[in-house]
Design a protein that fits this description.
The protein is an alpha/beta fold. It is built from 12 helices and 19 strands. The chain has 2 domains: about 5-225, Spore Coat Polysaccharide Biosynthesis Protein SpsA, Chain A (Alpha-Beta Complex); about 230-385, 60s Ribosomal Protein L30, Chain: A (2-Layer Sandwich). The chain is elongated, with a radius of gyration of 27 Å. Bound molecules: cytidine-5'-triphosphate and magnesium ion. Cytidine-5'-triphosphate binds near residues 18 and 106.
């Protein structure tokens, strides 16, 4: 009979070493959250019955957004340490009685389906097995002053990864014993299993299966990702709307109190409209009016972040990335400066880029012409988009 296999995907950590922003398991890599990659591998693996995520109580919204459409269990809330999170996950699996449990760090998005097979096979054979890689650097032991006291024979050394795979009942019993003995300091399940007296075996790990830990890890990945997108394109966009009666304007997705409103199609956010056209321009993919005709009543009063999201999705659908967005707003009033950072944050949030890739500038029109007479407002934008090489140049 095939064995029942469950996997815990651990995502209850805070990612303190990986720098600011959302916890690292929800940061985007390749346009999707880190956690989604391993959940997809497990969820589509024919030998895995149950995929049980373990998350932090504060991350519910991030989790829901990250797993849309995937085959996963309702998440369990983890604990203050990795070990406590594993125990919470194991307890949640207890009623479904899997034979084998895999424990995986959500912070390792690059595992392969073949590694999952090796983990299951090894656990079925030995009851406790972990992916391991030989150490290629020579390893030294040093004293408090950094002086070498010993050179270790590296032939016997391994670095280990997840998924670690165990007989479910044995791992659960070991975790319960550790908790009863007030041992809370095990950083992986193999260490806990060794402490509990289990023999832990190894199988071949994968060098690509690294754990994303530091801000540099993410920076390096982003650099590699951009390097794979050599077709660099710039698009420009322009928009103008008239002022009319009202008490606020919406610019760059931010509501700004003002003694006039901007009139026009949708919420008349000239900054976002110019950005949408800039992105569509970089893609040579029509303009905002061709995708959202002003004659269509469904766009009346629409919030323009929808249009920007649409343009961003068109970039993702081409396998590309937005490298930079730059917008200039021209009006006598309201003053944009005090709202500049809020607008940058908002645009970055909608576009799924970091705020250092969004510029917002403003100028008056020196009281000249229709802008100077406060009859209208203008925005100019450029977007720099990186795409995979697609060939197809006109001769
Ligand atoms: N983890 C967990 N519960 C905890 C701590 C960690 O589920 N209380 C998970 C993390 O989400 C991660 C994995 O265990 O997927 C490995 O831990 P680590 O790389 O240390 O992640 P963090 O604890 O989030 O990062 P940091 O130590 O930098 O804060
Ligand atoms: Mg940690």
């Amino acid at each position: 009979m095939p064995q029942k296999v469950a996997v815990l995907v651990l995502a209850a950590g805070r990612g303190t070493r990986s720098g600011g922003g959302v916890p690292k398991q929800y940061r985007p890599i390749g346009g999707r959250p880190v956690i989604r990659a391993s959940l997809e591998i497990f969820g589509s693996h024919p030998r895995i019955g149950t995929v049980q995520p373990v998350v932090h109580a504060d991350d519910e919204a991030l989790f829901v957004a990250a797993v849309a459409g995937l085959r996963v269990q309702e998440p369990v809330i983890g604990g203050a340490t990795r070990q406590a999170s594993v125990l919470a996950g194991l307890a949640a699996l207890e009623t479904s009685k899997p034979d084998i449990v895999l424990v995986h760090d959500a912070a390792r998005p690059f595992l392969s389906s073949a590694l999952v097979d090796r983990a299951i096979d090894a656990a079925a054979a030995t009851g406790a097995a972990i992916p391991a890689l030989p150490v290629t650097d020579t390893v030294k032991v040093v004293d408090g002053e950094g002086r070498v006291t010993q050179t270790i024979d590296r032939a016997a050394l391994r670095t280990v990864q997840t998924p670690q795979a165990f007989d479910f009942q044995k791992l659960l019993a070991a975790h319960r014993r550790a908790a009863e003995s007030s041992r809370q300091d095990f950083t992986d399940d193999a260490a806990l299993a060794e402490w509990a007296g289990l023999t832990v075996t190894t199988f071949e790990g994968e060098s690509r299966n690294m754990k994303l830990t530091t801000a540099e890890d993410f920076a390096k990945l982003e650099e590699e990702e951009f390097a794979r997108l050599p077709d660099i394109r710039t698009g420009m966009g322009f928009d103008v709307h008239a002022f009319g009666p009202g008490d606020h304007v919406t610019l760059g997705g931010v509501r700004i109190a003002h003694d006039q409103a901007i009139t026009g199609h949708s919420d008349a956010d000239v900054a976002l409209h110019a950005l949408v056209d800039a992105i569509l321009g970089a893609l040579a993919d029509g303009d905002i009016g061709s995708h959202f005709p002003p004659s269509d009543p469904q766009w009346r009063g629409a919030s323009s972040d929808r249009f920007l999201r649409f343009a961003v999705e068109r970039v993702a659908a081409r396998g590309g990335r937005i490298a930079h967005l730059d917008v200039s707003i021209v009006c006598e009033a309201p003053k944009i400066g005090p709202h500049r950072d809020a607008i940058r944050q908002r645009i970055a949030g909608i576009a799924g880029v970091t705020v250092d890739r969004v510029a917002v500038k403003a100028t008056t029109n020196e009281q000249l012409g229709f802008i100077g007479r406060r009859e209208g407002i203008v925005a100019y934008a450029t977007a720099t988009v990186r795409l995979p090489w697609s060939g197809g140049h006109a001769r």
